[in-house]
């Protein structure tokens, strides 16, 4: 009987192929099947990083989201579609693992930090052997390229999804020393308003496509429009103890 394969969640880093770890390269090159998440009609960002960093060849499996931004996350239709998608994707991978195939799932940033891989991991971890290969997060890539030390001394860092209500953003910004606000997109006007209300707009730094081609870094207060892609975030550096 063929022993089952192993599932790998592989962090591919924030975008620059030079930030892919040695372990990530090794796993992707040795895996029998490479899977990657993608929007319909497009290659996934993690797969694009692999192109530049590793040049993967062989068998691939595209895990194509049924919806992305077409439906609001709070809409019941979104949850139903995405849950069914993860169920089906997990079973497709389970069939490969059961047949003895090692499967590497490519992940933007780190697999366990707001990653789609976590939903596969939750469904498969009790059935198969799993290894998670950590990756450089998008936020660390952004603050490094922006030249913004994010925490000093005893600063407390809070990571906030921009999808929160404005009042929640204001409240949480008011109780932390430093912040990273992710998942900007169409939420940038709300985030800007929350930062103004919290008195932090002058410290806020906007980073678009950090470590990638077309990277933009600027003070948020100087950004004239409210346009932001998915790969954008706002950094609010701490002002703690400096020695």
From TrEMBL:
Alphabetical list of NCBIfam families matching this protein? cobI_cbiL, PRK05990.1
- What's an example GO BP annotation here? cobalamin biosynthetic process
Task: State a single Pfam family of this protein.
Answer: TP_methylase
As recorded in UniProt, its EC number(s) are 2.1.1.130, 2.1.1.151
Q: Which PANTHER family match?
A: COBALT-PRECORRIN-2 C(20)-METHYLTRANSFERASE (PTHR43467:SF2)
Q: Which InterPro entries match?
A: 4pyrrol_Mease (IPR000878), 4pyrrol_Methylase_sf (IPR035996), 4pyrrole_Mease_sub1 (IPR014777), 4pyrrole_Mease_sub2 (IPR014776), CobI/CbiL (IPR012382), CobI/CbiL/CobIJ_dom (IPR006364), Uropor_MeTrfase_CS (IPR003043)
Return the similarity comment: Belongs to the precorrin methyltransferase family.
Task: Give the EC class as a word.
Answer: transferase
What GO MF annotations does this protein's record show?
cobalt-factor II C20-methyltransferase activity; precorrin-2 C20-methyltransferase activity
Pathway membership of this protein?
Answer: Cofactor biosynthesis; adenosylcobalamin biosynthesis
Assigned keywords, A-Z: Cobalamin biosynthesis, Methyltransferase, S-adenosyl-L-methionine, Transferase
Name this protein carries in UniProt: Precorrin-2/cobalt-factor-2 C20-methyltransferase
UniProt domain Tetrapyrrole methylase: residue ranges: 6-218
């Amino acid at each position: 009987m063929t022993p089952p394969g192993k599932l790998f969640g592989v962090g591919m880093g924030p975008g620059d192929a030079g930030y892919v770890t040695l372990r990530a390269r090794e796993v992707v090159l040795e895996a029998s099947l490479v899977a990657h998440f993608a929007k319909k009609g497009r290659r996934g960002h993690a797969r694009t990083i692999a192109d530049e960093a590793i040049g993967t060849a062989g068998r691939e499996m595209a895990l194509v989201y049924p919806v992305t931004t077409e439906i609001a996350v709070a809409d019941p239709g979104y949850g139903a579609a995405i849950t069914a998608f993860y169920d089906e994707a997990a079973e497709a991978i389970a069939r490969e693992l059961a047949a003895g195939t090692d499967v590497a799932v490519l992940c933007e940033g780190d697999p366990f930090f707001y990653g789609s891989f976590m939903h596969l991991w939750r469904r498969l971890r009790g059935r198969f052997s799993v290894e998670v290969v950590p990756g450089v997060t998008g936020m660390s890539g952004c603050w490094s390229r922006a030249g913004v030390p994010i925490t000093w001394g005893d600063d407390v860092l809070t990571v906030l999804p921009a999808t929160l209500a404005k009042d929640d953003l204001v409240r949480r910004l008011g109780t932390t020393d430093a912040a990273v606000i992710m998942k900007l997109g169409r939420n940038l006007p709300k985030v800007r308003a929350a930062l103004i209300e919290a008195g932090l707009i002058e410290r806020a730094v906007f980073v678009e496509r950090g470590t990638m081609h077309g990277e933009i870094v600027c003070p948020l207060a100087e950004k004239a429009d409210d346009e932001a892609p998915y790969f954008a975030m706002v950094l609010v550096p701490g002002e703690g103890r400096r020695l």
